[in-house]
Each structure stands twice: as structure tokens, then as C-alpha cells.
Amino acid sequence: MTHPASANPSPRLLSLAHLTVIDAGPLELIRAAAAGGFDHAGLRIVAPTASDSIVPVIGDEAMIRAILAEMAATGVGILDVEAIWLTPATDPAAFAAIAETAARLGAAQVLTIGHDPEPNRQIENFSRLAETARACGLGTRLEFIPYCVVNTIAAAQAVIDAAGVPGTGIMIDALHLRRSGGSAADLAALAPDGLSYIQLCDARRDPPFPDDLRREARGDRFYPGDGELDIAGLLVALPAGMPLSIEAPVAAHAGLSVVERARLCGERTRATLEALGQR
């Protein structure tokens, strides 16, 4: 029997999320995306938390030029830049450099996470980030994460509605949707322009203990089709042709090279999409 997804034959562009190969520098990330057959990559230009380290991009002209040259050589674009965590320590003065760098790299979206316990400040900072990104021709997506302040699809939508900035929307991560108690059915309630891409992965059906949610999210996911999430239902619920950012750090593959992990990720993702009539 043909799966319902086969009614939508539109191909989906694939992006390699930086977390899938988090130890890769910007240039290695782009080369790995090309080796894995990805159309785009998602690039970290802001360290999510103080304990995270990244190769600096913002303000480094030589690195920006090298990234642009690598993109031209491989044909890999930048889908989104990440990850701007909105916390009590957030400095809105940094937003302009983030947006300007993202625009120079040809990104379409700036990805942010809400983790500020003061609601009004969180809304204000999200609004300022979104307006700054919009002035540079970029959209802004707010990702909800079960172990953060903005922890559900409803909480994310409330921030977006309160900010009221055009070009904003929710980032759906397949793992976080499941772990927050949501499902593919929740996507039907979103505005038609509320989604522009999603992060796809697979995972075990049952969640770990609450204290282990962060560990699972950052390093113990599966490639799409290798776990027990409702990948098929999620894909059917998405608009035709919506890009997929594959965010799937696999613990069993942590010892493999960046290129090999990207190759396996792309290979497995395409096989799953083909089996579901999505590519």
C-alpha cells in the first residue's frame, strides 16, 4: 500500500545541522555537508551557552571570506545560523553583528531559544532580535526545548504572538516535539507561514529521565528512520517541499570522522525519505 506521503512527490532540500557534527569547524562543516549530499548546512556563529565553544566567525573577515569560498566551491548554502539563547545575560547590542554576518553568508533564518525566566524581557529581546534580523532580510525562528523556559509549542507561539514581528515563526525539532508531549497533529494549528523548515531526527519512543533530556538531545539521537518517532506523520503534516535540517548526533558514531558521520546521515535520511515517497 502506498503511504499517504507519496501524494506529495516534491523533493525536500536537506541541511546538515551543526549539532550532527558539532566538532566540525565552519569549513569542515561545509565540506562534510557536501560529502553527505546535503544542499545546505546550519552554522553555529554564536555559542549557545558559556560552556560551549565554537570557531569564531563574527568579526573574522578572513574566516567569513573562507566560508564564502568553500560555499562557492561545494555548492552548499547556509540555511540558518544559530544558536542565540535568550537568557538574563543576553546583550541585545550583539544582535546587529549576528544578523549582518548571517546575511553575508546568505542564511535565510536566525535560530533562537527562549530561556529567560522573566517573560517581558524575553519577549522584548525576541522582538529586538527579530526586527534586527528582518532589517537584514532574514527570518527568525524560535525553538522550544523541554528543558528550557520556552518548553512547548504553545509557549513558543505565545512569545511570537506577543512580539508581533513579521517573518517570525516556530522551529519544530522532532525530538523536542515528542519529549514536550506534542505530535504531528499540533502542526495543523500553526499559521501557514509559521514554519519555514524543521529539524528532523529520530529517537527512542520513550523519554529518558528528566535530568537526561539534555544529554539525549545533544548527543544521543538517531538518524531519521532508525528510531521510533512518527517521522512519517510529521512529514505528511509539513507543507510540500519544506526544507529539512537534519539534527542527529548519534552516540554510536561519535568516534567516526566528521565526513563519515555526515555521509551516513545523508545516506540514511535519503533512504528514509525515499521509502516514504518524500524524495
Low-confidence stretches: 1-9
CATH topology: TIM Barrel
Q: Just give the CATH class.
A: Alpha Beta
- Give the beta-strand count: 8
Order of helices and strands: EHEHEHEHEHEHEHHEH
- The proportion of residues forming helix, as a percent range, comes to 25-40%
Main beta sheet: 8 strands, parallel, barrel
Q: What average pLDDT do the residues reach?
A: 94
CATH architecture: Alpha-Beta Barrel
What general outline do the C-alpha atoms trace? Answer: globular
Explain the overall architecture.
With 279 residues, this protein is an alpha/beta fold. The protein contains 9 helices and 8 strands. It has one domain (4-275): Divalent-metal-dependent TIM barrel enzymes (TIM Barrel, Alpha-Beta Barrel). Helix 1 runs parallel beside helix 2 (61-74). The radius of gyration is 18 Å and the shape is globular.
Element layout with pairings:
Layout: E1 14-17, H1 26-35, E2 40-44, H2 61-74, E3 77-86, H3 95-104, E4 109-114, H4 119-135, E5 139-143, H5 153-163, E6 168-173, H6 174-179, E7 198-200, H7 213-219, H8 231-237, E8 244-246, H9 258-275
Parallel strand pairs: 1-2, 1-8, 2-3, 3-4, 4-5, 5-6, 6-7, 7-8
What's a quick, concise take on this entry?
With 279 residues, the chain is α/β, with parallel strands linked by helices. It has nine helices and eight strands.
Short key terms for the protein model shown above:
36% helix, globular, eight-stranded parallel barrel, disordered N terminus
